[in-house]
Amino acid sequence: MLLKLTLLPILILQVASFEVVKSETDIDVTLTYNYENVNSYNQIDLKIAFQGAYLKKITKLIAITLSEFDMSDSGFSVDCQYPLQIQPPKVIYTSEDRQIYFFMAFFNKIKNPPTPGEKIIKITIINGTKTINMFLVLEIKDDQLKCQADGNGITFERSNLQFSFQYDFYQIEHKPIMFQDLQFQLEFPVFTSHFISCTNFTGLSNGQDCQSKENSIYVFNRNVEFLYNESQHSFIINNFTYPSNLEVYTATIKIFNSGNKLSEGQFNFGAYAPSEIERIVKVSSNSYATQYTTLQILLDSQKYILANSDMQFTLSILLVIDKLIINDIEKSFVQNDKVISIIGFNDQLLEQFRLKVEFQFQNLEYKQDIKFSFLINKISASLFGDLIYSIEPNRYKSFIVSRDTEVVDEETNLYINIELQNPIVNGVIYIQFPKELNLVQWESQIVSGSSFSFTYWIKNPSTICQTSRFESQAYQNDQFREQLLSDVVLIQKPNQLIKNLQISLSSLLSVDKTSLSVSLESQYIVQLRFDDTININEIKCQNCKRINFSVIELSKNKDVIFNIETPRLAKESKLLISTYAKECQQSQIEYQLVFKPNQFQIVPQITTRELNALNQWQFSIELPCDINEQDKLKIHYPTNLIIKQKLQCKFLNFQQNNFDCNTEINDLPLMKKHQVLRLLISQPLNPSKPQLLEWQFILVDKNGDQIAIFNSKFQDWEYEKIQLSNIQLMDNKFIQMKEALLRIALQFQVDVIKYEGNIIIYCDGCKQEQNQIVYINMEGNGLLEIPFRFFTIPNQYVYLFTYKLTTYYKGDIQQQGYFKQSISLSCSNDCAECESYDKCSICLVGYLYNSTCVDECPVNYYALNGQCYPCSIGKCTACAFLEKEICLECEGDLDLYLNQCVTQDYYTDYNNTNQTNNNQNQNNNQIIDEQSFLVIYNFPGLLLIIFLICLYTIIIKILNYSSISKTICFSYFSLLENGISIFLIIKFIIQGLYDLAFLSFSLLAFQIMLQLNSLLQLKTYIMIDTKYQQFKKEYWSIKNGFLDIMWIQLCLLHYPDIQIEQTSKVGQQMAIQE
Predict the structure, then answer these.
(1) Sign of CA dihedral 729, 730, 733, 738
(2) DSSP reduced 3-state for 946
(3) Which residues cross the membrane (predicted)?
(4) Pairwise CA distance, residues 391 & 777, whole Å
(5) Cβ-based burial of 104 (10 A; exposed 0-12, middle 13-18, buried ≥19)
(6) pTM surpassing 0.90?
């Protein structure tokens, strides 16, 4: 018999006996078991019955495989009428000569698998020569506990934590269950305490031992423990350390018996810290004294409240509460004097809650402020807050003042008619008159009732002020009821003292910023009085000042007032323009301002752009003003929206369930200006063809007056994709206006193609609407080729086309596609950069000549920096450039002389003129200096030669000029040598041969040091004639030294590493002459 009970709400399964039956042809298998919980010791009974043809055959093998069951317990056994072999996880029966009619096996103390799920028991039977495999499926279920923890712990403090659990057992006989070694393990996610103790055991024996280790608490009883079926068990953990964070933690409890886990469950706990309720709003139906009222209080908080929390109200003055309602559900409460308590006011966890609490009571008989103090316990962050409830006196219903005449300085009767909203008994009425009447305060006799009339004899004031104030007070039983202030017109003098009035607002939209331009002519002070719905607190102007919250005074007759906040509601507003003289109003003009609802555009977000698909619409509405109680949001759905079932709405800003989307949402969350209200609308179906969907949301107040309108449009549907599009160039030549083909593979007929890309294209039949949008008029389908042109940019040879194509047919979108393609252009083969394909600007090889690349520059041109430049020297047919232009060859019979092409006569005249100076050396040096040479030298070899020559000269000088007279001659010669060295240094620097200039400077320094050493050898007593004689003797020696120097210079000129190229005929003739 199969007996299987359903799951309880606490997820505890009661089981008695479970049966699995499986039949093959002439074979019936029945398996029964007692427990289906994980890790439970089970009793499994297996019965196999053979019928029909199987009775006549010999059964050779019966193998039972319990793959995931545990047979390792010492008490495990299998009872059978036949001998069995136990080979875990198998139990096998084998025989060669036996016919079996009935087979039974009883598995004792076999342990269920540790994991829940469907478990398979395989039965293999070999009957005769036939093998039969049968599979039995058992469902093993997890075992859970119903448990909870209760405590009022504050963060960082120690307190008590009461833990309770319910664990249901089922036995054939309903008797207490005995446990040999029962243990409870509570695992917390945070540290608890090392100094805990456990008391107040319920459903458990009091001999329990309680210990803590790290984040776990162990409760165990080494003695025998009896637990009753379906009983409640609890105990209190003392000195429990609550965590420091304000959040709900999840802990785990495990129950073991003799080391075997029986069950496991989870429970929540948390600490709290006092926190103030973020928002408390008071709404009262009647706050007048002695009236019966309903006080409604809205509590909004971002904190969460745990289930079954307690709420407490403390009143500053005793007020008898008749009824208390929370979220439209009447709650039972206990009022103890000024304290009102509600136990377990909520059934579930409230996150970011909003509570509506209503009190019904009789107001006191007098004006009084009563303080309501709230306290909500048993939450993660304990909440508190205060609210002041004011009982107001009964109000006046009417106050009417009239006179017989309104002429200045005339006597007249003044009539005052007063009507109270509620009658008074044995009361007194006081009236304070305007100061212009020169009357003292008047007190009535003892009166009763609600309507009163009084008459006074007065004299009208002589001033021209138009308004004054009457004050009235009513008392009953020494309790002040209300003070009435009334502005009453005493004198009506028709004066329109404002001329040429021009007034305009930059915006007449609700919940908007506007500026007021006003221009008028008046000799009096002008004040602008706005309706109280218009906010002028943050105005800016040059010629005005703000008097109070509604009045602006102009210092000049013309001004612009900025930062005026328009009304919240789209309705008429009154603007009064008044003139004053000495605080007396002279005239007044009433101006009506009619405001329209402000309209805002919002962009919707959708989950899919696929046509005819179920969709979700999300609208983010930035609020232009605060949302007040009883505000509503009207929804105008698109007429072409497909709605097959009720739409579901949800505010994503708040944790709440979905609600039906009607044409009006009444329960709006209370939010502040500039906050974003995120509304999600589910279940609508996208249209079957592309079309414009227009949503409209209208924010209205409780009376239906419009505040703001939010419009949303959507048309960006997911159309059929264009599968293929590419750009093909005619060639890759780089030219300014490049031609190409736009190739498109289309599936449907088109008549217009819209191109949106980063590069503008031009074509025949194209219409450019915006900078990067081009409409192409072309009909057809399939593969279309559109010739187009585009402009290139100098020196840019790679172009990345990023474009979107949209095809239309008779105004409807057919297909869309997004594409990217890179194309490359190039110059001619030997050109690196070009302005166009045939106009090169930089060559890869060769030289640039007339925008083309050549291997060599033509005649009368020279090469420089990869380009050919024409020779600027006249009559020169070959030239080069070395810091300046150098002519290498002249035309015809012209000779190259001083870097110029000249005739033979010019050279002869010039040479004869130079020979008249009798200084051949100076003329030669001048010719050499003026002539341009191409010098190529081997720098290391030159240094070595010069160094050896200088060393040789120094040694000769030291050996030959040891006497005083020779030293004097050497000094004179040294001066000439120094001059030549300085000249060479300057010449090398001018020619850019800085290395030779540095070498010459070094030798000059060394030479000067040697000369100073030689001059020190002079003796002061040597006679001048002696020096003269000595000088004469040594004359020939000096001459020979000069010849040596000239020889050295000649060697330098003919040194192989120094080449002097002279191509002119003049240079050849000079060499012959020398």
Answers:
(1) negative
(2) helix
(3) 934-956, 968-990, 996-1016
(4) 77
(5) middle
(6) no
Q: Domain 831-915 carries which CATH code?
A: 2.10.220
Report the alpha-carbon angle 693-694-697, nearest 5: 140
Please report which confidence band the pLDDT of residue 561 belongs to, taking 50, 70 and 90 as the band edges. Answer: very high
**Which residue type occupies 186?**
L
* Torsion-angle region of 960 (φ positive above 0: left; ψ -120 to 50: alpha; else: beta): alpha
Rounded to 5°, angle at Cα 613 from 609 and 615 = 70
**379-422 pLDDT tens trace:** 545 678 888 888 877 678 888 888 888 777 788 899 999 988 77
Alpha helix positions (H), 902-1020? 904-915, 920-930, 939-960, 964-990, 994-1015
Q: How confident is the model over 182-197, as a mean pLDDT?
A: 81
The 10 Å CB-count burial string (b at 16+, else e) for 997-1021 is bebbbebbeebeeebeebeeeeeee
Burial 488-497 (b: 16+ CB within 10 A, else e): bebbeeeeeb
Q: Would you say 200 and 236 are in contact if contact means Cβ atoms under 8 Å apart?
A: yes
* Cα–Cα distance for residue pair 363/286, rounded to 1 Å: 9
Q: Which of 918-938 are b and which e, b meaning 16 or more Cβ less than 10 Å from the residue's Cβ?
A: eeeeebeeebeeebbeeeeee
Q: What percentage of the chain exceeds 90 in pLDDT?
A: 11
Q: How far apart are CA 53 and CA 62, in angstroms?
A: 17
Q: What's the rounded Cα separation, in Å, for the pair 960 and 953?
A: 11
Expressed in angstroms, the distance from the first to the final Cα of the chain is 144
Comparing CA positions, the residue from 693, 718, 699, 719 lying closest to residue 617 is 693
d(CA 26, CA 616): 59
Give the start-to-end residue ranges of the domains of the chain: 339-360+369-403+410-435, 516-551, 737-806, 831-915
Instruction: Please say whether the beta carbons of 1030 and 964 come within 8 A.
Output: yes
Query: Among 977, 971, 975, 963, which residue's Cα sits nearest to residue 1033?
Result: 963
The backbone torsions φ and ψ at residue 997, rounded to the nearest 5 degrees and listed phi first, read -65, -40
Write out the two tokens for 715.
């048309």
SS3 string of 193-207?
CCCCEEEEEECCCCC
The answer to whether the beta carbons of residues 346 and 331 sit under 8 Å apart is no
- Tell me how far apart the alpha carbons of residues 179 and 227 are, in angstroms, rounded to a whole number: 8
3-state secondary structure 91-114: EEEECCCCCCCEEEEEEEEEECCC
* Cβ contacts of 472 within 8 Å, gap of 6 or more: 396, 399, 418, 429, 430, 431, 432, 483, 484, 486
In this structure, what token pair is assigned to residue 924? 């030669």
Q: Name the DSSP letter for residue 549.
A: S
